[in-house]
Write a structure and sequence with these properties.
The complex is a heterotrimer of chains A (241), B (240) and C (720). Chain B is α/β, with parallel strands linked by helices. Chain B folds into 2 domains: 168 residues, Rossmann fold (3-Layer(aba) Sandwich), CATH 3.40.50; 63 residues, no CATH class. In chain B, helix 4 crosses helix 6. Classes of the chains: A alpha/beta (241), B alpha/beta (240), C mainly alpha (720). At the A-C interface, helix 2, strand 6, helix 3 and helix 5 of A face helix 19, helix 20 and helix 29 of C.
Chain lengths: 241, 240, 720
């Protein structure tokens, strides 16, 4: 059984089915990709998993326990971390403080005895924000803001990490470094779900890829399988090709 | 008959959100009476380009020319009055208004409601049955028809369609594109952005592929089909 | 049955008026996103204008009505939109709220200026001697008129919004503003129209309700709380539900008036009923989704310890100077500077750090004052602790159900709480809850004893001045400590993005509850000190309307910093009373000024303390100026104490000394800058920002610039 299991999730907004019976899983120790055209429902799925959007039907389980009815806070405390496509940084705080807040929150509910200041420094080092650690976040370019969100999430020691377009706004060298970081994190045992438009990155780091279209999973498999899948080609390229 | 100046021309357009540049000098021409398809993967900057074209967003550099006149900085409502109609991404309708009220919004052009309704129902008979329905409760295809009906009610010179097919079943997409073809034959120029490439390529006179804020290829639709797969899925040779 | 029918008619008539006012509120809120706290005040001003034209100048009814409703109200609306509200894009909800409260306070001040209070003004009902009988029950002409007008308004609004293009455009703007502008709608025109219509509806409501109540600026303006409840039942969106809510509200009020025993304990309940109903409605509406990031122009820098200690020291110094130099009566007046500064300080963690809103500051102050007054009757300092703890607990209890709400809804819930206590609970006689006897203001006023610490009694105004200034300095330090702590970072994080905080595992409810309790506790403490200064307290000292300027000036001063709080106290209880002593014109001006300051907030959402600190910054960079001040101020003080100087000259010198220091320091520091610029920079080590000015710009410099700004090259260079 996968660490994170999403089973048969549907979300209805008015007359539209944003998600229609989505079932995916994320295994510990690997990066799972989630791709699909605009409006396919990727961010909605993340919102459902983290509890920001109640599903119309379906179940989310983390490590075998159902979390569908839990608040976002409780889910986070069980080890669910995420970043946001539309950045949700703490604008009035510096890079260091953004990450420190998360480390402090984690310390307050976990049994961890780690010094939050040390945790913060280690994470800044790890995601490569040392040069701008004391800058206010709203003075940073988007690529670095995405790293702050990642670092903030890492400070809560998540078991499952949901990344919503973490590479958009990063340049090529940054993306390469980022891919290496993702592999490292996965190797440490984290389950990572990656929503990303940079298909090359997804194909590079993911062990499995799910393709979402019209709120439905139209294909799942290894990157190579997915790239050859007719349904995927149709979804991306048109109906009759 | 043919006018040498293009109807809509974008020259060297650059644009940025916050501090992030998304367009890096884009050139695009829509000739009088033609259908131009703009294709490309998510995040390529297609929608941004359309927003610049219809005045919803300022360009940081470059010119927007409509009928040969520079229209940078003209407000969107003013451009709409001059004949640039935009059907934005994700259904260009007011979901809490009825179909009739949606159409009534277009009376600012001077046409009466009954004239607008006559034109709209002629093209989209299905809307007539739904006249009192709240637009947001109609099916996706019907909403898109309403959006196009509203765009066309102004009798525009150019109709800009953003992701016409988004979230719609293939059969409905084909139906919509048949309508697009009819509209084009009636003399309206059309600029359409799509991810669903094949259907639109069947209708377009000219197509361009945009990746990472730049037009990487443009030409006749038939020539472009080959390149799309690599631009979208990156599974062939290098795509930049 | 007759009685029931009679009160139903009364209720329908009142409800009809609420409906008219509330529909205007909904109209402006939906189209412009601004909740107009001044809706009632606009109706009030128009009612006064109508009174002036018809009753004072003898104009015929139709002419006076036409001018008041069709000219004054819409023009006022357009002016408000163009001059005040347009500047509020990208500001926080607090700023928007404060601006409309500023409008409310300003309009009340203006009305009092033009129409002296205390004068009896006859405002007879329309169709005063007419009426008819319905099922044996008398219906007055006025009652029939209000219902007819409400029906006409409802019909006209329906026709306008459904069948005219402008009306449909208005709804379209609500649906999707940018799409509307693509369809030939000018959003600015629509918002001006919405304000004009909202004000017209307010005017109609104000003129209709004026005969039923006293023609009093504050009373009329606050009728809005009743209308708010109706608008909230319509969830600030639906006009039909708003009308329904208004009818429910009017009838509830009427039945309470008709059927409740006429004991004094219930008289207040009737007045407070709309507020209580508002509170209940707020509790049962579905909670809003977690909010994400807000764009806003506001920014409050982190306070330094050094600056904080200097600030605390200067506050105590100011207290000491005033305590030793002011006459007893002046000291009594100006000691309130510090107690109000503490009231304002209570809002700093709540609004400035956590982004939550409370309009009940003075109400918590009243609870603190009552606790201290009753329990600390012998001046026991322990009672001061309770004056902190009990309001904190009450604050948490009130906040617990209300915290699901955010922004404007939370503000309204606290306003409803404040009004309910103000109009009802505070006016109750002593009562028992189980073994505990609860005392309010004993149906009038309550004595508050001065603090007694080990036999030392703070019984003179001068001693109290010292006590309260020290208390302010200490609480300022505490608030700064909160800001700099883990907890303070957490509050700022929550203000930026609740959604992100939740997904990091932060307990949002607990965090909000604690900051609400902290704020209420500080306010209660301030209330106890204020009560001591007053010696005898009554509900009027802590009225809901009294509390609004505190919020206004705290935000205007700079809600993110303790300096803003002192400035709020100093303006409200120092500067304004001072200019009031200059004459009638100035005392009138003093009533309008807080409102004007609030209205102007959109221009400078960071608060004025921020600008002042920038202004005085040169002193810190020029040591002789600091030394000069450190010598001059004590010198003046000694001269004053020795009797060489009068108070007038002394305070003038105190005010001029820092200004002189700024001017001198500014000139000296400015010269220093000049010499630096005069040095021609060597070509090779020009600061980056001077490239292109002092040396020619080279294309390669782009790379350096990119690196310095941390931008990536690809973005700047464009296509290869």
């Amino acid at each position: 059984m996968a660490l994170l299991e999403v089973s048969d999730i549907s979300v209805r907004f008015g007359g539209n089915l944003a998600l229609d019976g989505v079932t995916i899983g994320a295994e510990a120790g690997c990066v799972t990709g989630l791709i699909g055209p605009n409006g396919a429902g990727k961010t909605t799925l993340f919102n459902v998993i983290t509890g920001l959007q109640p599903p119309t039907s379906g179940q989310v389980t983390l490590d075998g326990a159902a979390i569908t009815r839990l608040s976002p806070t409780k889910r986070a405390r069980r080890g669910l971390g995420r970043t946001f496509q539309r950045l949700e940084l703490f604008n009035m705080l510096s890079v260091r403080e953004n990450i420190r807040v998360a480390a402090d929150i984690h310390r307050s509910y976990s049994r961890s005895k780690d010094d939050p200041a040390a945790v913060t420094d280690a994470i800044i080092e790890r995601v490569g924000l040392g040069a701008v650690a004391d800058a206010r976040v709203d003075a940073l370019p988007t690529g670095q803001c995405r790293l702050v969100e990642l670092g903030r999430s890492l400070a809560t020691r998540p078991r499952v990490l949901l990344l919503d377009e973490p590479a958009s706004g990063q340049d090529d060298t940054e993306t390469v470094a980022f891919a290496a970081l993702l592999r490292e994190l996965a190797a440490e045992g984290m389950a990572i779900v990656l929503v990303e438009h940079d298909v090359a990155l997804v194909m590079d780091v993911c062990a499995r890829v799910h393709v979402l279209d019209f709120g439905r999973v139209i294909a799942s498999g290894s990157p190579a399988e997915v790239q050859r899948d007719d349904a995927v080609l149709a979804a991306y390229l048109g109906t009759s090709s | 008959m043919t006018d040498p100046t293009p109807l809509l021309e974008l020259r060297g357009i650059r644009a940025a959100y916050d501090r992030i540049d998304v367009l890096f000098g884009v050139d695009l021409v829509v000739e009088q009476g033609s259908v131009v398809a703009l294709l490309g993967p998510n995040g390529a900057g297609k929608t941004t380009l359309l927003k610049v074209a219809c005045g919803l967003m300022p360009a940081t550099a470059g010119d927007v020319l409509f009928c040969g006149k520079r229209v940078n900085g003209v407000r969107p409502d003013e451009l709409a009055r001059r004949g640039v109609a935009m059907v934005p991404e994700g259904r260009g309708i007011f979901p809490n208004l009825t179909v009739r009220d949606n159409l009534r919004m277009m009376t600012y052009t001077g046409a009466s409601l009954s004239e607008i309704e006559a034109v709209a129902f002629d093209r989209f008979p299905r809307l007539k049955e739904r006249i009192r329905q709240v637009a947001g409760t109609m099916s996706g295809g019907e909403q898109q028809m309403l959006a196009m009906a509203r765009g066309l009610a102004t009798d525009p010179a150019v109709l800009i369609l953003d992701e016409l097919s988004m979230g719609l079943a293939p059969i409905i997409v084909e139906e919509l594109y048949e309508i697009v073809a009819t509209v084009a034959r009636s003399g309206v120029s059309i600029l359409v952005v799509e991810q669903f490439a094949s259907t639109v390529l069947g209708v377009a006179d000219h197509a361009a592929i945009m990746v990472h804020g730049r037009i990487v290829r443009d030409g006749a639709p038939a020539d472009l089909e080959q390149e799309l797969s690599s631009a979208y899925l990156g599974n062939q040779q290098g795509d930049r | 049955m007759d009685k029931f029918l009679t009160f139903t008619i009364v209720g329908l008539s009142t409800g009809a008026i609420y409906a008219i006012i509330a529909s205007g509120l909904v109209l402006t809120y939906t189209t412009t996103g601004i909740f107009n706290f001044a809706q009632g005040a606009i109706g009030m001003v128009c009612a006064f204008a109508y009174w002036q034209m018809h009753f004072a100048w003898g104009w015929p009814v139709w002419a006076a009505l036409a001018v008041a409703v069709l000219v004054i109200a819409p023009v006022l609306g357009v002016l408000i939109d163009v001059l005040v509200m347009r500047g509020l894009e990208d500001t926080s909800e607090v700023t928007r709220l404060v601006v409309s409260i500023g409008l409310l306070v300003g309009l009340i001040g203006l009305a009092i200026w033009v129409w002296k209070p205390g004068v009896s003004r006859n405002f007879s009902a329309f169709f005063a001697n007419q009426g008819f009988t319905l099922f044996d029950t008398r219906v007055t002409g006025q009652q029939a008129l209000t219902v007819v007008v409400a029906v006409v308004v409802a019909g006209a609004l329906w026709l306008f919004l459904r069948t005219t293009r402008t009306g449909v455009a208005m709804r379209a703007v609500v649906d999707d503003r940018s799409l509307a502008s693509l369809n030939g709608v000018r959003p600015n025109v629509v918002s001006s129209l919405a304000w004009a219509m909202g004000c017209t509806l307010a005017a109609i409501g104000g003129i209709l309700i004026a005969p039923n109540v006293a023609l009093d600026a504050a009373t009329l303006s606050l009728l809005i709380v009743n209308a708010y409840a109706a608008a909230i039942i319509g969830r600030l969106r639906s006009l039909p539900l708003t009308f329904l809510g208004a009818v429910i509200l009017g009838c509830t009020e009427a039945y309470l008036a008709g059927y409740l025993k006429t004991s004094p304990n219930f008289a207040g309940l009737r007045l407070a009923a709309p507020a209580i109903l508002l509170f209940i409605v707020l509790l049962i509406i579905p909670s809003s989704r977690l909010r994400g990031r807000r764009q806003s122009r506001e920014y409050f820098p982190m306070p330094t310890w050094k600056g904080t200690w200097v600030f605390a020291g200067l506050s105590i110094l100011a207290g000491a100077i005033m305590a030793t130099t002011l006459s007893t009566s002046d000291a009594t007046t100006y000691a309130k500077v510090f107690s109000f500064a503490i009231f304002a300080l209570s809002l700093v963690p709540l609004i400035g750090f956590a982004g939550q809103i409370s309009l009940a500051t003075l109400t918590f102050g009243a609870i603190g004052a009552l606790i201290y007054g009753h329990i600390g009757a012998d001046g026991n300092p322990l009672a001061l602790v309770l004056a902190f703890v009990v309001p904190a607990i009450v604050g948490a209890l009130i906040a617990l159900p209300a915290l699901r709400l955010s922004g404007i809804y939370l503000a309204l819930a606290t306003a409803a709480f404040a009004v309910a206590l103000d109009r009802w609970i505070f006016n109750l006689a002593d009562f028992d809850i189980g073994p505990i006897r609860i005392s309010m203001f004993e149906l009038g006023s309550t004595e508050v004893a001065p603090l007694d610490v080990f036999g030392y009694t703070f019984d003179t105004p001068a001693r109290q001045m010292m006590l309260v200034s020290v208390a302010f300095a200490l609480i300022s330090v505490v608030v700064v400590a909160v800001r700099r702590s883990r907890y303070g970072r957490r509050l700022l994080a929550m203000k930026s993005s609740e959604a992100a905080c939740a997904t990091l595992g932060l307990d949002l409810v607990g965090t909000k509850l604690s900051v609400f309790a902290l704020s209420a506790g500080i306010a209660g403490f301030a209330g106890a000190l204020y009560g001591m200064q007053l010696r005898s307290i009554s509900p009027q000292n802590f009225g809901f309307v009294m509390g609004l300027p505190v919020l206004l000036l705290a935000v205007v001063g700079g809600i993110g910093a303790v300096g803003g709080a002192l400035m709020a106290g100093a303006s409200l209880m120092g500067f304004l009373p001072l200019i009031s002593t200059l004459g009638t014109f100035f005392s009138n001006l003093a009533a309008v000024l807080p409102g004007l300051a609030g209205i102007g907030l959109g221009r400078n959402p960071n608060g004025s303390v921020h600008d002042m600190r920038e202004g005085f910054a040169p002193i810190l960079r020029y040591r002789p100026a600091i030394i000069g001040l450190a010598v001059a101020v004590p010198l003046f003080w000694i001269l004053r104490l020795a009797g060489f100087l009068g108070n007038g000259v002394f305070y003038l010198l105190l005010a001029l000394a820092p200004i002189a220091a700024v001017v001198v320091a500014g000139v000296r520091v400015g010269l220093g800058d000049g010499t630096e610029v005069a040095d021609t920079p060597r070509v090779h080590d020009v600061p980056l920002e001077w490239k292109g000015f002092s040396v020619p710009w080279e294309p390669e410099d782009v790379v350096d610039l990119d690196r310095a700004l941390g931008m990536n090259e690809v973005q700047l260079h464009g296509a290869p």
